[in-house]
Amino acid sequence: EEYEEEYADVEIRDGVAVQVIKTRTATRNVIDTLSVVDESGNPVMETKKEVYLEEVTDADGNTSSVPATREVEVQKTITVPRMQKIQEPVYGDETTFDSGKRTHFGMIAQQVKEAMAAVGIDDFAGWTLADAENPDSRQGLRYEQFIPVLINAVKELSAQVKELQQRS
C-alpha cells in the first residue's frame, strides 16, 4: 500500500547546509497473519521458547532480573501478503430455463469489453464487432480466445496456492 512519510533532507541555501523536512510517497507490503487449523478446524499448536526476566535473590538478599527462557504452547500462524478484494465477475448472471432444453451459460460482450478496458486491455481477439468500421454494430465473443487466458490464470493461482502451502 502507499503511504506518506516525512524524512530529513539537507539543502544548500546561500552556501549553508540546511536540514529540511520533506514528505514523500512510499510503498510498503501489507500482510495478514492467519491462524493455522487442521482439517477438522482445530487449532494447530506449536511449542516456542519465550524469553522473560526472572527475579533472583543472591546470598546477600539483593534481587536482580536475569534473562531466562521457558517453553510456551501457542497457536501456529502464517504470514501472507494482503489478499486483494475479489472483483465482481465480468459475466452476466441472467439464466433462462426452457423445459426440455439444455442450459447454456454465457458472457455479455459489453461487460467483457468494460472489464478488459478497466485493466488496460484495449484490443482482445475474444471480443468482436460485427462491423469493425461501425462501433455501434453488434458485439460478440469468441469463447475459444478465453481458453489461454483462463489456463494462465489457473497456473498463476496454482503457484500462489503452492507458495502458501509451503509457508505453512
Automatic annotation (TrEMBL):
Signal peptide coordinates: none
Superkingdom, taxonomy of origin: Bacteria
Domain Peptidase S74: 1-168
Name of the protein: Peptidase S74 domain-containing protein
Record organism: Pseudomonas lutea
